[in-house]
Amino acid sequence: MPATRCVIPVIKSPKDYQVYRISPHDTNRLAIIFDSTNANTSLTCCVEIFEPGGQTPPNRHQWAVEMFFVIKGQGMAICDGKKVAIKAGDSLLVPATGTHLIKNTGSTRLYTLTIMVPNEDFAELIRSGTPLELDAEDMAVLSRLDALMPC
């Protein structure tokens, strides 16, 4: 019987996430969960946090596929001119070369789990921004404490 190697997974919680705003005028923040510096693989996985009315700039990726899973809130996804409303529980897959943006159309913050494969310098772009912290509202959402709060 061949010897097996024990693989120890990388485990992180919201208090471990590194948060950045890419440009001073951006209306969204990105909290890196995993990227090539801490996962030894070519992917970027982050939580993207959009203020009400906030959006990403239109962007496209040469090779990378990007997936958005809406954790909380509502918004609009626009890809190559096609618009679709998105809300908590929805998933969006953007193929390589699709020009896209995500916009928060709600009155509260929009949270998405955003995954890009391969990384295509996404993590480096995020890390080139201004370091920030998650606030109490972010921590409540990411720790699922908000699900326990009365409406």
Report on this model:
With 151 residues, this protein is mostly beta strands. It is 11% helix and 38% strand. It contains 3 helices and 10 strands. The radius of gyration is 16 Å and the shape is globular. The chain starts with 17 loop residues before the first strand and ends in a 9-residue tail after the last helix.
Give a quick rundown of the structure:
The protein has 151 residues and is mostly beta strands. It has helices at residues 36-39, 122-127, 136-142, and strands at residues 18-21, 28-34, 44-50, 65-72, 74-79, 82-87, 91-94, 100-104, 110-117, 130-132.
Defining key terms:
mainly beta, 11% helix, 7-stranded antiparallel beta sheet, single chain, 151 residues, 3-stranded antiparallel beta sheet, Cupin domain-containing protein, Flavonoid_dioxygenase-like, 3 helices
**Beta-strand content:** 35-45%
**What's the end-to-end separation, in Å?**
56 Å
Overall mean pLDDT: 91
Spans of at least 5 consecutive residues with low confidence? none
- How much helicity do the residues have? 10-25%
Shape: globular
Q: What is the element string, with H for helices and E for strands?
A: EEHEEEEEEEHEH
Strand order of the largest sheet: 7-4-9-3-2-1-10
How large is the radius of gyration?
Answer: 16 Å
Main β sheet profile: 7 strands, antiparallel
Structural class category: mainly beta
Quantity of strands, as a count:
10
The number of helices is 3
Topology:
Blueprint: E1 18-21, E2 28-34, H1 36-39, E3 44-50, E4 65-72, E5 74-79, E6 82-87, E7 91-94, E8 100-104, E9 110-117, H2 122-127, E10 130-132, H3 136-142
